[in-house]
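Hi U.,

Before I forget, here's the chain from the pilot set. I'm dumping it here mostly so it's searchable later in email.
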Amino acid sequence: VLQGNLDEVGVKEERVSRAFAALSYACALRGLPLFFAGTSAVGLADALACGLYGEMPLLVDLPRTYSPALMQELEARPGRAMILENVFASEWIDHIDRLTNLGAKQLFFVAPFADDLALLPKGIVSYGLPILTDLLLDIAEPDGWTFSGSKKQDLFLKDVVTGATYPVRSPYVRALGMMVFEETRYEDILALAHGLSGAKETDVMDALLCGVPYAYLHDTLATYWRGLKSQKLWHGEDTTEIARVTAMFGAEVLSHA
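Structure:
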């Protein structure tokens, strides 16, 4: 279901679709919010929510000024998923701790441009997982979502990951030079995601979906990229990761450490 929905919104390459579906499942299990920056951010959130929970998520365009009354209203809203716009460059970011704990909801924070990710504080990874959506997309127009019929989705997910190997010690994550608590958070999520995918597409998951957005957020992308190549973590010059990151940032940026 998830991969079908992702295909509709423009995630066409199977390796990327499988990796992103597994990573999204893992975040849902942990109740970890997703921060989407870039093209089709809302469409991706819709696709995931419909596949995971069988419902369209509530879309809330927040005012730039923080409102305690609106925060209370958000906390009281029903539903299992919610999309929040206009958080990245507003007063709401100062209340991110409370905003990422709106009850038992999967939260998607969205912004229309990749550059918006740079507006977030570096410590945002303590509250959720940043994703650069342009790294996923192969361009398409969504014409309908498939809704999950499962009413016990969480139980289903736990069954799927039974037997996963813990912990994941990802060289793609270790190369980022994270603080210990950040590294632990990422490797916990990746352990679940690797189990869900049957340990397939782990390089796409670890590097393209997790490593590159983190490095971009911390303005260390070129250094991170050169480190991966020096450790021979790529398998050829035409891999999914190299092609997509080069297309987005340019070869000259990646070669400039």
